[in-house]
Write a structure and sequence with these properties.
Layout (H helix, E strand, L loop, with lengths): L9 H7 L24 H4 L9 H8 L2 H8 L1 H6 L3 H10 L4 H5 L6 H10 L21 H23 L2 H23 L15 H25 L20 H8 L1 H21 L3 H34 L5 H19 L4 H23 L10 H10 L3 H21 L14
Helix pairs in contact: 6-8, 9-10, 9-12, 9-13, 11-16, 12-14, 13-14, 14-15, 15-16, 15-18, 16-18
């Protein structure tokens, strides 16, 4: 006796009844009736009066979309629109080619059917209106301007004070800038969307190390190559080596254009997500958007670099500031959209490269270790001390840009907008 699953698959039912030899006219008969041993021979040979519904029953018994919904039940139940289901499916490896096996042209149409078939309460609309794009708000706009303003005030006080007063001012100013930067990263476009969890602890540490090198690294490297800190004259900071105030000031001021660039990416990516009809189509439209936003931020950063250098009476060092700013912007952009592992690794690699460069110069002073400083000394002799951070941060930023062009062009990276901007 065949089971109930064979009712909707005539071929399977015929194969199961192969131990009862029949003619060609009788093969389809068992699959059209309930295989009950109590049936009379006359009833068994009676043809089905309505064979047309067989394909519909066959799809019901083996409904692939229903099986997929069962597999992703939590995703379907908590989704507020089909776009969220499409993004979740993509995150689980479902592509447009996979959707074709479910009789759909792309993942978006498959998500629409899954969303429509989820049972909901009567007070919940079946097709809610699309979520509004993130809007600029005065709270995060002011917060992104605060780090630059506090850093400018600190630098101004640094140039007007001396001795112990200067040290206290620098300490208080640096603490105020860090607190303002932390507040700016917790609200608005630079805060994590949809997964508000703190980033890996290593990210903050390596970021501070890169910023510290931007302020002190060139002077320290030059001092190491000239025999030690005592070989340099006293700088503006009344310390053993000069303090470069222009790069930290530029990066603090760049917090505002970084937030606006991230906001611009979120708005336009959401709009293209709603108009795209496939994952490949969205990726093709999101990639130039990402590169355009990144180029826009670099232009703003270059302008701020020249402005800060002019205000402080220093030389604009784009080779050091632009790679570092690009690296920090891409790392934060990836963290905003939930990709935290790659930024930590790349930030750590850049920070370690700068640290090793200075350490090898000091280690070369040991007997028999002069060869350790040859690569760094050759690089500095050809391009100057800024070549070390430019090379380290430039390679790291390029790595993150390639990674971002593959991850931030996914629908799953832009579908969640429950974090207000």
């Amino acid at each position: 006796m065949s089971d109930l699953g064979e009712l909707d698959h005539p071929g399977t039912g015929a194969a199961a009844e192969g131990d009862h030899p029949r003619g060609a006219d009788d093969i389809a008969a068992p699959a059209l009736h309930t295989p009950d041993p109590e049936l009379t021979p006359d009833a068994e040979l009676t043809p089905d009066p309505a064979p047309a519904p067989a394909p519909a029953r066959r799809r019901t018994a083996g409904d692939p979309v229903k099986a997929l919904m069962h597999r992703h039940r939590d995703l379907c139940e908590r989704a507020v629109d089909p776009l969220e289901i499409a993004a979740g499916l993509e995150a689980h490896g479902v592509t447009d080619r996979t959707a074709a096996r479910f009789r759909h042209r792309d993942v978006f149409s498959l998500a629409e059917e899954m969303y429509a078939r989820v049972p909901r309460d009567g007070d919940r609309p079946v097709r809610p209106a699309p979520a509004a794009a993130p809007r600029a708000r005065s709270n995060w706009v002011l917060l992104t301007l605060l780090p630059g303003a506090l850093c400018a005030a600190t630098v101004t006080g640094l140039r007007l004070t001396h001795g112990q007063t200067r040290l206290c001012l620098v300490t208080a100013g640096a603490l105020a800038v860090l607190l303002a930067l932390r507040a700016a990263l917790r609200r608005g476009p630079l805060s994590p969307h949809g997964h508000a969890h703190p980033g890996p602890p290593g990210a903050a540490g390596w970021t501070f190390a890169l910023l510290a090198y931007a302020a002190l690294g060139d002077g320290l490297l030059r001092a190491a190559m000239n025999g030690g800190p005592e070989a340099l004259p006293t700088g503006a900071s009344d310390g053993p080596w000069p303090l470069a105030a222009a790069p930290p000031l530029t990066l603090a001021l760049a917090c505002a254009p970084a937030a606006w660039s991230a906001h611009l990416l979120a708005v336009h990516a959401r709009r293209r997500l709603e108009t795209s009809r496939g994952l490949e189509e969205f990726a093709a439209s999101a990639r130039p958007l990402l590169l355009g936003v990144f180029a826009l931020f670099l232009c703003a950063l270059a302008a701020l670099t020249g402005l800060s250098a002019t205000a402080l009476g220093a030389t604009a060092d784009h080779a050091q500031t632009l790679p570092l700013g690009a690296l920090l912007f891409l790392a934060r952009l990836l963290h905003v959209h939930g990709f935290t592992r790659a930024p930590v690794l790349v930030l750590g690699a850049a920070g370690a490269a700068e640290t090793v460069a200075v350490a090898t110069v000091f280690a070369s002073r040991l007997p028999g270790c002069g060869f350790l400083s040859v690569p760094v000394e050759t690089l500095v002799a050809a391009w100057g001390p800024t070549a070390v951070p430019a090379l380290a941060c430039g390679a790291a930023a390029l790595t993150l840009l390639i990674h971002a062009s593959r991850t931030l062009t996914r629908a799953s990276a832009h579908a969640r907008t429950d974090q207000p901007c």
